[in-house]
Amino acid sequence: MPRVFISSVIDAPPAKVWERIRDFNALPRWHPRIRESRIENGEPSDKVGCVRDFNLQNGDRIREKLLGLSDYDMFCTYAILESPMPLTDYVATLRLTPITDGNRTFGEWTAEFECDEDKGDDLVAGIGGNVFQAGFDALKRHFAR
After folding, report:
1. Mean pLDDT of the chain
2. Which one of 32, 38, 83, 108 is separated from 20 by 20 to 30 angstroms, measured CA to CA?
3. Residue whose C-alpha is closest to residue 6's, from 143, 136, 121, 115
4. Which residue pairs from 35-38 have beta carbons closer than 8 angstroms and sit at least 24 positions apart in sequence?
């Protein structure tokens, strides 16, 4: 089972970073690869079980289900329901942890999934760089202003 792990330090208080990313439907507001997103059936975007349907800048469509959300522990866990990527059983968690030295944020984004053995390394690299690290880089740019 391939595993992706990307971590980063964001020079902003964890509460501010969490405020920016908490909304499960807010990807287009902070992630540069996401064009548009909507929560299906008009459900609240923080309701565990809600499904977001979004498009990447290249037009690809992805549907994901919110599996867990904690304001106290500052994390969200979600699963991919539909994607053009050749994988299954994808579950990811985005978690923020306070760094008390300087009131900064440690972010970690992890995912595990199933795929054909010959596709694992490419998927791990693509998800890690194009999705997870790109998201962290966008957050760092936002808070550097």
Report:
1. 96
2. 83
3. 136
4. 35/59
One CATH from 3.40.50.2000, 3.30.530.20, 3.10.50.40, 1.10.150.20 for 3-144: 3.30.530.20
Closest CA to 52 of 72, 76, 71, 73: 76
Dihedral class, residue 102 (left if φ above 0, else alpha if ψ from -120 to 50, else beta) = left
16 half-sphere exposure, CB direction, 13 A CA radius: 12
Q: Give the mean model confidence (pLDDT) for residues 31-37.
A: 96
Structure tokens at 51: 């499904």
Q: How far apart are CA 137 and CA 54, in angstroms?
A: 20
Residue whose token pair is 């306070």: 98
pLDDT at position 145 over 90: no
pLDDT in tens, 47-103: 999 999 999 999 999 999 999 999 999 999 999 999 999 999 999 999 999 999 999
